[in-house]
# Entry
Amino acid sequence: MTDPAVDNCTFRIGFLAALEADDGAYVAGLLVTNRYGRPLEFQCTSPVRPTRAQELLYGQTLRPFLLGESMGRALLERLGTPPDLLVTDNDAILDLRNHIAIPMARVDNQSETTLTNTTAPPLGRVRMGRRILSIHTAHEDDIQALHHGATQVAAETDLQEPLERVREALAETLEGQ
Amino acid sequence: MRHLIEHTSDNTLTPQVQTHSLPLHLSVSLFNSGLGAGITRPLRLDVTAGSLVPPPRLLPAWQPNWESVKTIGVQFLDVAEPARSQTHDFATGQTPNGRVDMASVFEPTLPHSPRTESKTHRTRVDVPNNALSIADRLFYLLQPPIETLLSGQELVMPFEPFPFQYHGIAWLFSQSSALLADEMGLGKTMQAISAVRLLLRAGQIRTVLLVCPKPLITNWQRELAMWSEEIPVVAIEGPSQRRRMLWEMPNMPVKIVNYEVLVRDSEMIGEDDFPAFDLVILDEAQRIKNRESRTNHAARSLVRKRSWALTGTPIENNHSEFVSLLEFIGAVPDHSANDIRQLNRLARDFVLRRTKDRVLKDLPPRLDRDELLDLNPAQQLAYCTAERDGIVQLGEMGEMITIQHVFELVLRLKQICNFDPLTGQSCKLDRLGAEMEEIAESGGKAILFSQWTRSLDWMRERLERFGPLIYHGGIPSARRDDVLKRFHDDPNSHLLLMSYGVGAVGLNLQVAGYVFLYDRWWNPAIEDQAINRAHRIGQKNPVFVTKFICRGTIEERIDLVLQQKRELFQAILGDTDLSNSSLSLDAREIFGLFDLRTGHGDQLRSIQPPEQLDNSHKPSPTGLTTRNSQETGSPHKSPKTT
# Structure
């Protein structure tokens, strides 16, 4: 939960995204920006290919384990600039919320062009900038962090855009491997 | 009794206990064994508590030990948010505790409104070719769209830039060597300032030196205050001791200096002791086009990490000027000899040039009109006499003739076309007066350019009724801003008389809807610069450009050559074809203005310029001017701006 006393000027958002390479390996990246989208820190993993044992043991839960608990948590631990809110557009990554104390939200896949400023977001969701964000069902308190975040970013902010930057950066690192 | 473990439907392990009854009533039979006493002892049953469910042993004893995930990271400099002025829009978003509610400041807009569509345009920073390390590449890749930073969020812009300007800002941001050669009036100044602002904000640079012509220092200060109010700026001027102190002043991100002071101070302080800069910007960079000049040397001697050159005319005369600019920005080594193909390739990597017709579809049109005038009788007489005598005189000189002699005759004839020095008759002034009556009547304003300050002063006395103002090299620098301000603000001031040399570059005069070229400059690029003082971004009305040309005179011949030059200029910069070297009138063209012949009878033959002079035009020769070039202009020299 975001500390309500957090200084507006230091409100930071972490954008967490992942890519799957052709060989089945995953890379994940975490970009921390200020409330305007200006980058403060970026961490990304080296490619991680799940082992056979992991595939057998985790089955359907392999992606949440790998992207969230394993890679997501590793990225967070390396951060020197912890965010006040983590945003992703990947359900598997959202599972990371079960292992950390930082509020998390998922950018809805709903196209921004279908939204209007008169559309009230559904229960459990908050409009932040031009996007609707939803929380992990097991962490309802995070809704307060979203409401606070909504007052921190400009109405024209697109919280999907930094995730695209992260994926571009990950693609660049994969090319350099 | 035994214990079992069962799987339940929710996959949890539940211990189950099965029990069996055992009879405790034991049968006893006696026999004589001598142990009778023991029989009388009651049976004792001890009860001990024991767990019926021992720890299940079916859970795996093996713990996962996955290999730890390796990460790499990039840290970005966290610069504090800039202070904002109280008058800023953010004031409306202040909450009672002084915090800013961004959502209340920036109301969401309807998705299909034009404004939203413009906001959804994203200009990303390209990764420069020289960014080789993954950290460097990530730095550029992770930068947000320029619009995100500049469209009313972190760094406030007073006006919404055009998309091509966003592109220019993003391009400059990623370039350590850049020649921004946008056509005049497209906002090179704003783009450079915004890129500087972003670089300062991103912690990529800390010190910037901006070098510009002296008359433009106040213009730059004004633009900096408008586009980047938070950046401290100082102009290096005044006595030498003060200038030395300013050069060494720390914590001053942007310093502005004019070319002359730069040359003087670099010699005074010495190259070794001269401060280094993260970024050096040359405005009107054509000032260093001559490789051998002290200005060029002083500029190239500056120790710097990034070099930008701004000019609307990267080629005024020949492609060696272009090479000089490339040398300054570090695109080519000093004194390199590049062929045309190499220059074309370098231009693609290091030059960004846009023209109005391509990017400013909405700019009001520029309507050019050639006003062909007949000389007044006294002018005609003076002109014919001067031309006849001059040609005869030149013919008599035969092979001794130089371009200087021809040039003097051209100037004399052009001056007569402006007005007859004896009677003051002037067909141009008559026409100008008539047109100004109409302009003033409608509350309009006009700019007039001439190459002679004397002509400007002469006109001023005769056009008092239009509240004329003078702006040329004879006006002290300190008073020039006042002149421009008065022209802008005073409704009774309808005419600004400017010399090409001082007024052609860097000034924003969109308040004027009319431009008169009273006489013609030698180079169409300079004429365009002059016209573009009015025809630039911010102009809301069509700009009417009138070029006065006296029929049947030297002016008509010059106009024909200039027209050909103008077409050539467009071909070179439009197609990036640098094979044509000369844009100013060269010696052969000046000789060609007259039918100069020598000899007698059947032996008459045309006089051609001496070979050395014909060749010498290419590297912009010196010593060909017959008098102060500021006042007269020379086909071989760019106008001085001070």
Remarks:
- DSSP finds 25 helices and 18 strands in chain B.
- Residues 83-118, 574-582, 611-642 of chain B have pLDDT under 50 and may be disordered.
- The radius of gyration of chain B is 40 Å.
